[in-house]
Structures are given as C-alpha cells and as structure tokens.
Amino acid sequence: LVHSLTVADCCAAVFSEDLAEAILEVRDSYSKPLRLFQLGGVGPGDVAGAEGRGPVEDLQALLDKAAPTPPACAPPGYRDMLLYIYTSGTTGLPKAAILPHSRYLFATLAALKSLRLTQSDVIYNPLPLYHTTGGNVGVGCALVAGITVVIRSKFSASAYFAECAKYGCTVAQYIGEMCRYILAVPPRPEDRQHRLRLMLGNGMRPTIWKAFVDRFNIPNVVELYGATEGNANIVNLDNTIGAVGFLPQSLPQAIYPVAIIKTNLETGEIIRNASGLCERCGVDEPGMFIGLISNRDPTREFHGYVDKEASKKKVIEDVFVKGDKYFLTGDILVMDELGYLYFKDRTGESFRWKGENVASAEVEASVCAILGLRDVTVYGVEIPGAEGRAGMAAIVDPENTLNLEVLANGIDKMLPAYARPIFIRKVAALEMTGTFKVKKYVLQKEAFDLKLVKDPLFIRSGNTFAPFTNSELQDLQTGKLRL
Fold first, then answer.
1. Cα separation of 204 and 177, whole Å?
2. 391-403 exposure pattern, b = at least 16 Cβ within 10 A, e = fewer
3. How far apart (Å, rounded) are the C-alpha atoms in residues 468 and 1?
4. What is the dihedral of CA 382, 383, 388, 389, to 10 degrees?
5. 256 conformational bin, left if phi > 0, alpha if psi -120 to 50, beta if neither
6. How many angstroms separate the CA atoms of 373 and 365, rounded?
7. Of 243, 378, 448, 463, which one is least surrounded by beta carbons within 10 A?
C-alpha cells in the first residue's frame, strides 16, 4: 500500500470503512502529506497521525455540503490523463500505468461495437474495479453508453450463475482463474437457468474451455488479450477454443500493425538478424508479441508508467526499419495458419531443460487437468552442475490428499520428458494478485532450499515422487544425484 501511494505521488486517499484500518496503519510510513477521506461507516472522528498529520475527513459530509453546480474549470482533453491503473504485480511490486481519456474511451467503444451491445443488455461484473477489464471495459459501458452493469464487491464462484439469472444478465465478465473456480463448484440447476449470450474476459484455460461452455450452456466466449498500458490488443470473437485473438491474414499488416517476432524463449532476448533488425515468426513459431507505437494515432500511442525508467523497458526500437518503435508486451504468443493467436507463456516464465524450451503455462494446464482443477503453478529452478532449469510445481494440498503416483502417471502420459516437473511442493495456498493471477516470484526464489521452504517437498523417483530431504539435497549438490 505504501509503495502504491508512493509511486503515484498521491496527495489524498479515499477509502471505505472496511479499509480504514489498513490506511491508518501505514499513514505515518508515507513521507508526504496525505489527506484521508473516509466514505461510509461510523464517523472517523479526529484520528490524527504522527507529526501533526490531519484527521480523517468524512467524505459524505463534505459531499453533502458541496455546491450542486460543476466547478469552474476547463473541460478535460481527449489526451489528458484520467487514471493510474496498477499492474497486477505477478513478478514484483505493481507499476502505475497511465490511462488517458482516449484509451478509456477506446477500450469501452471497442467493447460496445465488437460485442454489439445494446440498451437491452445487462452486464454481470464481479471483477475488481481497479483493473482495466472491470473498471474500464465493464463499468465503462455504463458510464459511456448507459448500459446496465451489475457489480459485485467480491467474486463468488458459487453465486456466479445464480446471480446472472437473478439479474437477467446477457453478458458476463471473467478474468484469470475465475472460470476454473466456477467449474469446480458442484453442478446445480441454476447452472443453465440464465440468459447469457456471451462471456467476456481473459484467461480462460484451453483445457477447461469446452467443458465450461457445455456445462453452463454458454453460446459464445469472447477472449481478450491486452495490457492496460499496451497498444497490442486483440480479441477472439468466435469461440475458437484456446485462441486469445485473431488477425485475418488477408488484411494488410499496416491496418493493425502488431507482430510476433523471433525471441530467445528462455531469456526473453529479442533475436536480430545481420542487419540489426527483428524478424517475424512463421506459422506455429512462438515469439514476442509487439505493437507499433505512433503518436499520430491515439490507438497506437504508448503512455507508459509513472516510472519513466520502467516505461523505457517496454519499448523496442529499430524493429523492422531503422527508427521505428514498438511496445513490448513481454508475452510469448504463437499464430496458426488461419491467423488465430494463442498465448504460450510470459517472458521469464518459460525455461529451458534438456535442450528444450518449456512453457510453464502449458505444464500448469496439464497438471491442473490431471488433479481436477486444483491451484497449481510451475516454474524453473536451477540445478547445481546442470544446464538450464528443472521444472517445479507448487500444488495446493491443505488436506494432504494429493496422490503423487497418480500425478506422476498423468504427467508421463500428457507431457514430453523434458517438460515433466522434477520437483513438487505442497502448499496450503498460492498467493494471488487481485486479478486472480499467481505470484510465483518468491516460490521460484526459494526453489528447493530446505532452509527456506517449510512446505513438504518431493522429487521424481521412478513412477512416483519421493520426499526431498537433506540427504537428496546433498546428493544433488555433490553431483551424486543426477536428473
């Protein structure tokens, strides 16, 4: 919280009663003056901080006293800054992405037109409103076009379709692992008693896609791909399983200048040819997804982050011609011969083992399917004296019901030898971001260090996984145990 206040250089914070304790806990850790406004709940009173910081102010009382007429100030411009939206922080602390009015309007209007939304539609939105999909695409349809949007303070897998039916929703939103959680709820009559004509979001796993639409009778899933700060946004409008977008190959590339370029999948380093330029990937060849930056077109601008140094890292120059600039998504995608695009992995989450590139997202999908939709995350860990990184899977198993032999047998059938996890870590829970993405940075850093890891660890042994103890650790470090 202190980090988020600091990077955005905040001068005030508005919060509800349930977040008052968190705000008051850190207010004295924030170095600059910070006005605090509480909305709702018991009056905050004169709760002052250290160094003579002001009291918490009752926002509702101030609103009641405010003049009904708008303040005398110039109207905002199309390119003026509207919001900071924080990245999810899957691999570190969040960054504050700059969102101008132009990008907010573009995202909302794109949804309105591509989904053919009308005044008769009702959108179910149980997403966090500080995220682009919920607060921009979802709520934006209400703000910009007056379409009814049903919002929920916290996502509930068991209430999802019951509430869609209750409020007569025709469109429902999802992100991240939501659909997997919903599918894990035992079947009920309400599953199909809704009026939905489509679901819209990003992160639907290909391994559950068909089972999800069949069970819940979803006519169409519209899968989005994009980043709050990015300009390389695509969409799969026709329910093609697993695709995150579609680019008709008959259209000139200049109409929508995005590309997949050749990349070292393990390091994320862009590969350049003898002329120092990048090369496009061929059909079914994975690479980095990028989007042309142009200040002459509002849809192609890159506004970056409040942190200028972080912004520079997301821009690549001299891509196809000297002097051009592209936005680096940091994601590895692949395109088939028809023009459908599929997500492979995030840069740095792919790893190389036994001379082959391993996509952690694909291994996670396989392990998840074997174990019946448990939470799982996969990452590469360094092995002493070995080239590359061995696969490690952290699996949620609070009740110790994981059958390691069944898991081993399943991954042997579904995955090639180089992609099969060598290590298993049983955890009580996986830390998630507010957008339902797993934070794996700490897990990867701790690897199989028994001084740091207190969870049960296992190593592949024959047709199962055996406990990983100090004896195995010593054998691994001395080279006696080879993987």
1. 7
2. bbbbbbbeeeebe
3. 37
4. -50
5. beta
6. 9
7. 463
Which position has the token pair 């997202």?
361
Helix (H), strand (E) at residue 110: helix 101-114
φ, ψ dihedrals at 198, nearest 5°: -165, 160
pLDDT, one tens digit per residue, over 354-409 is 877 788 888 998 998 899 878 899 999 988 877 788 999 999 999 899 999 999 99
Mark residue 41 as left, alpha or beta (left: phi above 0; alpha: psi -120 to 50; beta: remaining). Answer: left
Using alpha carbons, select from 439, 344, 368 the residue that is nearest to residue 89: 439
H or E segment to which residue 171 belongs: strand 171-175
247-253 contacts, C-beta under 8 A, 24 or more apart:
247/335, 247/339, 247/341, 248/339, 249/337, 249/338, 249/339
Which of 155, 156, 158, 151 has its CA nearest to residue 137?
151
Q: Whose structure tokens read 């890159």?
A: 302
Angle between helices 404-414 and 360-370 (to 10 degrees): 130
- DSSP code string of 340-394: EEEEEEETTT-EEETTEEE-HHHHHHHHHHHTTS--EEEEEEE-TT-SSEEEEEE
Cα–Cα distance, 290 to 271 (Å, whole number): 14
**pLDDT, tens only, 38-82:** 998 765 544 544 444 678 999 999 999 999 998 888 888 888 999
